[in-house]
Amino acid sequence: MHHFRHTRRGVLALIASGLLTACAPGTLQWGSRTLGWPERGSGAGQGSGPTQSVQPQPEQRTMGSGRTEVFGRGPVPVAMLMPLSGDAALVQVGTSLANAAKLAIGFIEANPNIGENITITLHDSGSGAAGATSAATAAVQAGAKLILGPVSADQVSAAGTVARTAGIKLIGFANNPSVAGQGVFLLSVLPDMEMKRAIGHLKADGRRGLAGIFPATPYGEALATAFRQQAIAAGFSPSAVYMFSSPGEAAQIAAQAKPLIDRNAIDAIFLPERTSAPAFAAALLQAGAMPGDLLQLVGSADWAGDAAILAAPGLQGAIYPAVDEAGYNAIAGDYAARFGGRPHQLATLAYTAVILANVNRLSLATPPYDTTLLTAPGGFNGRDGQFRFLSNGRAEYALALRKVQAGGVVAVDGAKI
Q1: What does each C-alpha distance from 86 to 96, 152, 410 come to in angstroms?
Q2: Which pick of 41, 194, 223, 255 has the fewest CB atoms within 10 Å?
Q3: Residue 372 buriedness (CB in 10 A; 0-12 / 13-18 / 19+)
């Protein structure tokens, strides 16, 4: 089963316009200037830089399997693997991310102080592992020095095997951390970081007993593992971990948790899966476990922008980690002008990846995209805010905390890693 986030980072977003820089030490920049994405610790607000207008151009047609498209004018060949045929939902994501990559190239080309270092060849990876393997093989044979994409875990795993054998790096957009490592990096908000950020806040808030309710899927298992690990690292002994196959099990799980809630062994419950969270919140209410000051419900970055989450009575007062949305909003207008409609919530990841790939110190290095440079401890500022790659291929993002309340969402705590 493909798992990718459909909501505002659902997926997620990066900072108002400007360019991608690495945080000190070892500042990386486009050309000779920085255009408005502040370094970490500067205290500058996000979204303050000027936006780059992109002139409308005809919509890119969907490519068939094996087809390629080239954009950019730089000397370093970079491949982008996107699902542009097959499963309709994946095609929607792939097309939007490919379009966002073109916006990023347009931004580079329009700015005389930014070196045009890369040329991107877009390959259709289809919807399965075989298509990703074929596209990655074609990219390697064409001389790619870096592969960007794909978006689902099975495809990242398949393409990563090809890239690793060829000795080149791959930056994928899947959110299952198990496919990262050995030259395969994931530019996405991963469960470890979401759990770490939320659990740290709960500890500071004086919570004592944590529980989690997770879907019995590979991604749900990744969430549960991250929950256990981060809870223990923060000094908690997780009170209960519940796995479910269907939201129809909500009443049963709520009944199991109720005695622990009543004796204060559970005072915070994680409901990270967006689609089932309202059902579990309703079941807890029905069981007499009233979410509120005594029971804090906690979501995930996948909650952001979801109307059902905002409308669910049982989720009023729930908190969730999220990236800054300024970056998504910054590119939405240019995207609509050029391609029509709104970009997918993952589009900022592709935009960031292209700008990162073009950075002088990465693309023009010998060898290009060296692991030491990619994993610089200071990290980078991207369209979703500050992030850094770890040596295990996973990314850490600066996440804020938000609270659901009547009429919308309010900030609880600012973005931090």
Answers
A1: 15, 13, 39
A2: 41
A3: exposed
Q: Judging by DSSP bridges, how do beta strands 268-270 and 385-389 pair with one another?
A: unpaired
Residue type, 189: V
Sheet holding 268-270, edge to edge: 240-244, 210-215, 268-270, 296-298, 319-322, 399-405, 408-416
Residue 320 CA to residue 173 CA, distance in Å, equals 21
> For tokens 């990162």, what's the residue?
356
Q: What is the dihedral of CA 180, 184, 186, 187, to 10 degrees?
A: 170
Task: For residue 185, give the 3-state DSSP assignment.
Answer: strand
The Cβ of residue 111 has, within 10 Å, a number of other Cβ atoms equal to 17
Backbone angles phi, psi at 382, to 5 degrees: -125, -170
pLDDT tens for the chain, 417 residues: list them: 333 333 433 333 222 223 344 443 322 322 222 222 222 222 222 222 222 333 333 333 434 456 789 999 999 999 999 999 999 999 999 999 999 999 999 999 999 999 999 999 999 999 999 999 999 999 999 999 999 999 999 999 999 999 999 999 999 999 888 999 999 999 999 999 999 999 999 999 999 999 999 999 988 999 999 999 999 999 999 879 999 999 999 999 999 999 999 999 999 999 999 999 999 999 999 999 887 778 999 999 999 889 999 999 899 999 999 988 889 999 999 999 999 999 998 999 999 999 999 999 999 999 999 999 999 999 999 998 899 999 999 999 999 999 999 889 999 998 888
Contact predicate 157/179, CB 8 Å: yes
Contact 125, 149 (CB under 8 A): yes
Measured on CA atoms in the order 361, 363, 369, 370, is the torsion positive or negative? negative
- Cα–Cα separations (whole angstroms), residue 236 to 194, 389, 393: 16, 26, 27
60 Cβ contact partners less than 8 Å away, ≥ 6 residues apart: 69, 95, 98, 99, 102, 339
> CA quadruple 82, 87, 89, 95: dihedral positive or negative?
positive
Query: DSSP letter string over 293-358?
Result: SSSEEE--GGGTT-HHHHH-GGGTT-EEEE--SHHHHHHHHHHHHHH-SPPPTTHHHHHHHHHHHH
- DSSP run (H or E) holding 122: strand 118-124
In angstroms, the Cα distances linking 115 to 19, 62, 75 are 12, 29, 11
248: helix, strand or coil:
helix
